[in-house]
Specification:
Blueprint (H helix, E strand, L loop, with lengths): L3 H6 L4 H8 L2 E6 L9 E2 L4 E6 L5 E3 L8 E6 L5 E4 L15 E3 L4 E6 L5 E3 L1
Amino acid sequence: MSYPSRCMGVGMAAALTEAVCGDIQDNVTAAGSTQGTATLVAGAHVIVTTAAASTGVILPPAEPGAEVTVKNLGANALNVYPATGGAINALSANAAFSVAAGGQARLLGRNSLNWVTY
């Protein structure tokens, strides 16, 4: 596991450190009840702190080998949507993947359109 302080401690630039270790998008509030109205996220590690019933987040477009972790600290299940046209696991295109309250999902870019959880 990479620690940003260790990377920067050996002289790695901040931007390169973020690319290697990933960035955190914290205190995210889920929104909307559809893929088109969900909160867009961009961090490698996303921490949702508020999730009203039936709200969600939408992932950035998938890339082969990309990783995103979504933690749901909200009181309700969280809908996690792929980018438009994409899919998560064996769900249909644009369908939400549900993350239970207190749960998390680790997603891997399968190709340039789809994500799988692992």
